[in-house]
Amino acid sequence: MQIKKNIKANVGRNSSLYFAVGLNVMLALTYLGLEHKTYNKTTTKVETLMVEAQIEEDIPITRIEISPPPPSPPPQQTISEVITLVEDTAEVEETFIESTEIGQDDVIGDPAVVRVEEVEVIEVEEEVEVPFAVIEKVPQFPGCTGTNEALKACFQSKMQAHILKNFRYPEIASELNMQGRVFVTYLIDEQGEVTKIKSRGPDPILEEEAERIIKLLPKMIPGKQRNVPVRVPYSIPITFKLQG
């Protein structure tokens, strides 16, 4: 007898479906196991505060005794003075007080005659300074001649030539890149000498060099005001600038 196999009895025909379902179930269980969280449970003890007993307690009444005020002091008795009129029968001698002030007729000390000797009057020459711009005759630089305007132009030209001839840039200032303008002021006195040299600039090294140049100025013919030699102040700027 031949054994016939039922087609519906084939167990392996849905094996792939079962495998897929089982795989999904395992993945779901694994995910839930990894994502599952647990928390520590703490017990909270709730206590009830009973305040009824405290409220019902009787509060004792405190009595404050106030002492009576001190008695007021007795009123002070006023004593009235009795004035008795007495007849003035005694004679009172008047006292004269001599004045201590000195009058015109009083003699002080030794009445000897004081002789005043002759007082010698010394004439003091007033030092007059007239600005270079308004002086009647400006100081003459050696080699300058002509009118006052010509002397001014020649003076300034000679000054520029003198500065260019004696100018020397300080080595330290060159290394430190020092530059700037130095204003120098000086005075040409009654003898034509250059005095009272002052300078103002960005650095003492440049000021010292500018003063050295002015000290080399020659002696000049002094300026005159009303034909009288006077002092003449003069100022000039000297620029220190490095090339390149």
Automatic annotation (TrEMBL):
GO CC terms of this entry: plasma membrane protein complex
Domain TonB C-terminal positions: 154-244
GO biological process: protein transport; transmembrane transport
Pfam family, one: TonB_C
Subcellular location: Cell inner membrane
Gene Ontology molecular function: any one: energy transducer activity
Protein family: Belongs to the TonB family.
Protein's name in the database: Outer membrane transport energization protein TonB
Organism in which the protein naturally occurs: Winogradskyella arenosi
Source species taxonomy: Bacteria, Pseudomonadati, Bacteroidota, Flavobacteriia, Flavobacteriales
